Amino acid sequence: MPALDAIAGPAAAHVPIGGKAAIRTSSLTKRYGRTVALDGLDLSVPRGEVYGYLGPNGSGKTTTIRLLLGLHRPSAGRAEVFGHDAWHDPVEAHRSVAHVSGEPLLWPALTGRETFEYLARLHGGVDCAYRETLIERFRLDPDKKVRALSKGSRQKVALIAALATRADLLLLDEPTSGLDPLMEAVFRDCIGEARQRGQTVFLSSHILSEVEALCDRVGILREGRLVDEGTLRAMRRVAAQVVEVTFAHAAPQLPALDGVHVTTAGAKALRLAVSGPLGPVIDALAGHEVTALTSREPSLEEIFLHHYDGTAADGRR
Amino acid sequence: MAAASPALARRALTRRLFLDARVRTLSFAALFGLFAYLQPVAYRRGYPTPASRAAFEHAFGDNTAVRLFYGEPRDLLTVGGYTAWRVGGTLAIVGAVFGLLAAVRALRAEEDSGRMELVLAGVVSRRAAFRSATGAIAAATALVWLAETLGLIVGGLPVGGAAYLALATASVMATCAGVGALAAQVAPSRRGALELGGGMIALLFLARVVADTARGAGWLDWLTPLGWAEELRPFTSPRPLVLVLPSLATGLLLVLAARICSRRDVGTGLVDARGDARARLRLLSSPTAHALREERTSLAAWGLGITAWSFIVGVLAKTSSSAGISKQLDRELGKLGSGSITTSTGYVGFTFIFLVLTVSLFAAAQISAARREEADGQLETLLSQPVCRRRWLAGRLALAAGAAAALALLAGLTTWIGVHAGGVTLSPGTLIGSGGNCLPAALLFLGIGSLAYAAVPRASGWLTYGLILGAFLWNLVAALLGAPAWLVGLSPFAHVAPVPAEPFRAGAAVVMLAVAACSAAFATQIFSRRDISAA
After folding, report:
1. Which of A260-269, B284-293, B323-332 has the lowest mean pLDDT?
2. Which of A288, A312, B149, B329 could be disulfide-bonded to B59 (CB atoms 3.0-4.6 Å)?
3. How far apart are CA B14 and CA B7, in angstroms?
């Protein structure tokens, strides 16, 4: 493929802006008519971080990414990518960005290889050798037209094109939707490599295990607002602990306690989500015949559901 | 919850498909109603006395150029006869396009978008879905028929005759919807179906043109729905039995389409697009280059159609240049807003007015293509790259302008070849100049279309097409209605001289080009400030 080699360049042809955060937004707000899609978002993702962006459907994740890409115009506030204003200076910003959306919108008449070529020329320089490895690792047939590809395979095309740019910032909007578990594992490896190379990754996802496995820091979005943000460890500390108690007889009615949410977990068991100290719970249990008591940190899923429902984490439903 | 009823689901699908195309259907209905109303009114005003009508008939009786577009006039002495010729002739062609668009939209667009899989996953069978689509098309056709009938009635024609004339138009719509339905099954995509169907309709139109203009080719009229509509002879000597032909043809086409539909895979055509291909890396260097790559088939189709048309127009120049046509004609044609056609130059000038329309429609098609790239979401992918929005739109507009220029000059050149083959001497420069004369107006519509695209993206397609058709039809009737000059002049078509019969109007051209350039510049400004909106 001589034509492809011709445009193979160094991974990042542009000069990186030292010291500036990869993503920074301040009071970023977007309204569509009366709907407030994003409400005063303040976000800062330093270079080299893998940031997980979580939120239920319609919470404003894709809107955030559209604003970061300068596709939509902020109603208020601003967004910066490597110090470039996302709306006013998108072309400069995009030189250091690669984007994958959950619904890969490619050109049906182009083959995979033609798509790579087109996107590479638009981006200006990709790592062709790495691209060939990616094609192999993702097991993609690059000579099929996009219209003949399944959703998962189209997703692969978009992912390979984005990863091959070795861009400083990967903006990924549910990038693994439609991928099978094997390919998802390949994706995780690729993100690991990107992290090692010092690339920044902004990963919006529904797949909590994926975020848990990959991300340094997590932000949880709800109704256009960031309701929680931090490292997983910090979040776990703050969020409710899960205490499961099994009794010898029928589970008793416990008195109402501040910061404790009780659900039944079978005839003889209770699950307690405890946001404060454990002392009052232990006191309340005294006098009941307890056969087992376990306590664990909440999973990301439980933290997520806690914010999602607006109630205490109550484990799996 | 009640169990899903197939009958209810079918009805729901019919309603959805009908409503899906409602803006287009209503636009066509309004256009048909208005045009049908204006023609008889204009005729009464333009030719109030029997003497003026006789003069008009004498002038038009046998003119090739006029027949080329409107078909054969049978009676120009009565309001009904005139209306049957003008309304019937023009609306039959527009109706053919409407039928094709309606059928491809209902039968193919839904499938390309993937929504049809959702429907077919429910209790609706493929056959039922096909029938629902047919029902939606029939309802749309009926609505347009009703609008034309009402327009004619309000224009002062008897109810029965009006309904019959509109039925002649509707018969073309139905047959061409059949053509569209078949194309939708054969072609691998919506776009392919439109191109295939468009090509078939162009052939049917060509058959009618030859039948009405060439000596001894009258039998060709019986091979095309546009000919059948003429042979129904509304208002002169109605022959309702001829309706059997379009009914049979429509039925046959639909049955054939239904058979194919029940056999093929959803989302593909009988002729499936190749899934595998060796990478061809040409025309991928920039968004504009890629746009050319995406549009090249469509460009070739436009080029081919315009070439065939211009060649025939050129060959026929000889027949119209013969002497013996009353001088009255010049004045009468002036009233039609078309200038003199008694000489070859006059004839060419007259036919090139339709080229202005064609190239303008091409410009509208380019605006629609740009909008589709946005609606289908690819623009989002594109603009996530380091690609400047303004440059993207500017490149797209430049491509459209360049292609429009190429088409206009190609038309001039092939007309010259035709004229030359027919044995008339006109210099190639003159005819290429006539082609170039089409450009300012077409570029004006491109500029206005780009403004519509930037400001109201979702409405830009029908707005641009509607503006062009409205301006063209207004130019046809405004003069006859005796509208004040400034009102007539609202249509850009009024400012295009029939070159070479009249000298090129440089002033008007400069104004049109200036407005076009300002609109385009303004459009890129607005576009760079708005949200990218997928459908």
Report:
1. B323-332
2. B329
3. 11
Element (H, E) at A274: strand A269-274
Question: Which fold would CATH assign to domain A240-297?
Answer: Alpha-Beta Plaits (3.30.70)
Calculate what percentage of chain B has a pLDDT beyond 70. Answer: 93
Identity of the amino acid at A94: H
Q: Which of B290, B294, B386 is opposite residue A124, by nearest beta carbon?
A: B386
3-state SS assignment for residue A104: coil
In this predicted model, what pLDDT tens digit does every residue of B166-225 receive, in sequence order? 999 999 999 999 999 999 999 888 888 988 898 899 889 888 888 887 778 889 889 999
What's the DSSP call for residue B377?
T
Separation between Cα atoms, residue A26 and residue A41, nearest integer Å: 6
Residue spans of the domains in chain B: they are 1-271, 288-535
Mark the ranges of chain A whose per-residue pLDDT is less than 50. 1-18, 311-317
The partner residues of A84 in beta bridges, in order of sequence, read: A81
Helix (H, G, I), strand (E, B) or coil at A39: strand
Q: Using CA atoms, how far apart are residues B275 and A152, in angstroms rounded to an integer? A: 16
Q: In whole angstroms, give the CA distance from residue A149 to residue A110.
A: 11
Cα(B417)–Cα(B413) distance, rounded to whole angstroms? 6
Tokens encoding B278: 């060796």
Express each pLDDT in B392-418 by its tens digit: 999 999 999 999 999 999 999 999 998
- Which residues in A lie closer than 8 A to residue B529 (C-beta atoms)? 73
Q: Which sequence spans correspond to the domains of chain A?
A: 2-234, 240-297
3-state secondary structure of B307: helix
ipTM for the complex shown: 0.79
Residue A264 carries which side chain, given as an amino acid letter? T
Rounded distance between C-alpha atoms, residue A148 and residue A157, angstroms: 12
Asked if B149 and B163 touch (Cβ cutoff 8 Å), the reply is yes
Single-letter amino acid, residue A54:
L
Q: Considering only alpha carbons, which residue of chain B is nearest residue A7?
A: B285
Reduced to 3 states, what is the DSSP secondary structure of residue A169?
strand
Q: Which residues of chain A approach chain B closer than 8 Å at the C-beta? A: 1, 3-4, 66, 69-73, 90-92, 94-95, 97, 99, 101, 103-109, 111, 113-114, 117-119, 121-124, 142-145, 147-148, 158, 171
Instruction: Using alpha carbons, list the distances in angstroms from residue A280 to A11, A246, A265, A274, B489.
Output: 58, 17, 20, 10, 87
| pTM for the model | 0.81
Q: Do B280 and A147 touch (CB under 8 A)?
A: no
- Whole-number Å distance between alpha carbons of B515 and B440: 10
Q: Is B113 touching A (CB cutoff 8 A)?
A: no
Q: What string of DSSP letters covers B105-162?
A: IIIIIHHHTTHHHHHHTTT--HHHHHHHHHHHHHHHHHHHHHHHHHHHHHTT--HHHH
Q: Provide the residue type at B97 as one letter.
A: V
DSSP conformational letter for B477: H
Concatenated DSSP letters for B390-449? HHHHHHHHHHHHHHHHHHHHHHHHHHHHHHHHTT----HHHHHHHHHHTHHHHHHHHHHH
Judge whether B243 is closer than 8 Å to chain A, CB to CB. Answer: no
Starting at the earlier edge strand, list the strands of the sheet with A260-264: A260-264, A269-274, A241-247, A290-296
pLDDT at B320: 58
Average model confidence (pLDDT) for chain B?
A: 87
* Neighbour count for residue B438 (Cβ, 10 Å): 27
